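step 3/5: co-fold with adenosine-5'-monophosphate-propyl ester
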Amino acid sequence: MTTTTIDEKVTSVAVYPPHPRLANPEGREKPWVSSMAEYKALYKESIEDPTSFWTRIANETLSWDRPFSQVSLGSLKNGDMAWFPDGRLNVAYNCVDRWASKDPNRVAFVYEADEPGQATKVTYGELLAQVCSLANVLSSFGLRKGETVAIYMPMIPEAAVAMLACARLGLVHTVVFAGFSSSSLAERVIDARARVVITADEGLRGGRPIRTKAIVDEALKTCPDVEKVLVFRRTGNESVPFNAPRDVWWHEAVAAQRPYCPPVPVSAEDPLFLLYTSGSTGKPKGVVHTSGGYLLGAGLTLKYVFDIHDGDVFCCTADIGWITGHSYVVYGPLALGATSVIFESVPTYPDASRYWRLVEEHKITQFYTAPTAIRALRRHGDDFVTRCDLSTLRVIGSVGEPINPEAWTWYNEVVGGSRCAVVDTYWQTETGSHVITPLPGATPAKPGSATFPFFGVELAILDPTTGVELQGDDVSGVLAIKRPWPSMARTIAGDHKRFLDTYLNPYPGYYFAGDGASRDADGYYWIRGRVDDVINVSGHRMSTAEVESALIGHKAVAESAVVGAPDELSGQAICAFVTLKDGFEANDVLKSELVKEVRTRIGPIATPKTLILVDDLPKTRSGKIIRRILRKVVAGEADQLGDLSTLSDPSILDVLINKVSAAL
Ligand code: PRX
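step 4/5: write C-alpha cells
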C-alpha cells in the first residue's frame, strides 16, 4: 500500500472498488445505486434541480397528511431555513401505521436483551398498539402538542415506543443518554422544560444493574416542574424507589388505555425532538430537529447508504441517547418499514464474539458501529469473529470518529470477509443524517476517507482564517456546507443566537461543521478532527469546558484545563490539568477524588483518563490558558510548540513536559 501525506497525517490511498457481489447481486434486488455514474447523476440533479429532486424523493419516501407545495425556504445566511413548510404529516404514522396496515406481522424490532439467548421480536402490528396505548397515557397526563417529554431509558424497545408515542401526539421528546449522571439529566430536563419523564426501574449492561430510577429521583430534586414520572419495569427489582402519585407504573397505565390513538398531524417544520450535545462552552446545546426534513433525511440516507431492501435486518449498535440511535435505530429503519435490532448489552459480554453471534443469530444484513468498538474487538483476535457465520452481511458501517486504515482493513477483511461494502459515514448531531458517505455498490472506498457528499449536500473547504473557499482538489481547511439540506438542525432550543453564532455566523453563507477536512487529488473528503474545544472520546462528543467546570466544582481546584490526548483505543482520551488552591496537598487520594467528581457531575463517559496536578498552567500575559501548548505536549509534540512569544512564564514548560511524560 502506498501512502501520501496531507496535513502531517498519513493518508492511505489504497482504493477498494465495490465488491461485484454488491453491484450485481444474484437472486436479490440491485442496489439502489450501482455505479459512480448513477451516483453522480442523482447528486447532480439534487444540486442543480433541487425542487424536482426533493419533491420526488419526499413524496416517494414519506406519506403526507397534507402535501407540500413548496420544497424549501430561507438561507444559511439568514438562518431561517425551512423544508416542505406547508406540508403536514405525522412521524409515528409514517414509521408505524403505514407498515402495520400493510403487513402487521413484519418485524419492526429485534430486541437483543443484555443476557444472550433472550431475544424477542416486536412486529409492526404490536408496535402500533404499544405506541397508541402509551400516547393515550401521555394524553391522560394532560400533555399537548409542542410540549417536551424527557426520556431516560435503557436500550429496550420501550425507549423507541416512548419516542414514537410522543411523535404521535406532536410532543417533542428529549432523550437523555442513560449513562449521564443525575445532575446532567437535571440540567437537560430543566433546559427542555419537561413536565414528564419516562424511565425504567433499572437498566442492565453486561450483567450489571444500573440504578436508572434512583438517578432520576436524584435529578428531580432540582426539577420542581416535573409532575409525572412514568416507570417501565425492566428488572422488577422490588427495592426500586417509587413515589406515587408522581410516579406511575408503565404497565398499569397502558393497561387502562385503548390501543388506538389517532395520529396528530403536524407541520413538517414542527420540532420532533431536542437532543443535547456538547459545544465549546460548558452548557450543552439542545439541538432542534424537525418532523418532515429530519425524518426524510434519516430514511433516505439509511436506504441508500446501507442499501436497505425488503427482508433486510439492520443493526446499529448505538445507544438511543445519541443521534445515531435516533436516526439509525429508530427513525431511519422505521421510516423504511425495515427491521431494526435493539442491542441492550455491550460488545464484550459474555465475550468478544457477542456482536458476531448477534449477526449470525438474527441473520443481520447491515451492521453499523463505531471505530472504537472495532479497534477494541480487533485486539481480542480474529477467532471471536471467524467462529461465527457472517455470510448474511452486505454492508458494514462506521460512525462517530475517524476510522484508522488498520481498523478499516480489519473490519473489511475479518468481519466483512472482503465481500461487503464498508461505509465510513461522516455526520453530526446537527446534520441529522449522513452528509459524507460512500454508497455500497457504487463508491470505490479509500480506508479512512468518508468519500463523497450525500445527495443535496454541497460541501466546501474553507481557509480557516480568511473564510475563502478553497477551489479544486488537494486542499485542506475547515469543512463547511454551502446550502441547507432537509435534515439539518434548525435552531438550539431557547437560544437561536447561539445557533447562529456556532454554525452560521463564523463563515457567513455557510454551515460550519467544526471539523478540519481535506479534499484529496481524487476529490475524496478526509475528516481531520475537531477544530474547536470539543473532543471525541470513543465517538462521544465531550466539551472540554464542561469537564473543566466539573473539576472547578471541587473545593480543592483553583484552575483546570482539559485537552484531548491521542489514544489508540478511544481515538482521543480526556487529559485534565489541575492547579490546586492553597492549603490542599497534591496526592493520589485527591486525584482520584477529582476524577470521581467528574464522573458524578457528568457521567462515566467523561472520566479523565489522565489527571495531572501542576503548579502552574501555560498562560498569556493577560492570564488566558494556552491550551494549544497542552495539546501539543500531550500529543508528544513538545518539540513543535510553535510561537511562544505570548507565553508569560516559559520556565514552566520543562516541568510540564516532564510531568506529562511521567503520567502518559
Ligand atoms: O468530529 C466529527 C466526528 O464526530 C463529530 C460529531 O459528533 P456527534 O454530534 O456526537 O455525532 C456522532 C455521530 C454522528 C463530528 O463533528 N465524526 C463523526 N463521524 C465521523 C467523524 N469523524 C471522522 N469520520 C467520521 N466518519
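step 5/5: annotate
The mean pLDDT is 95.
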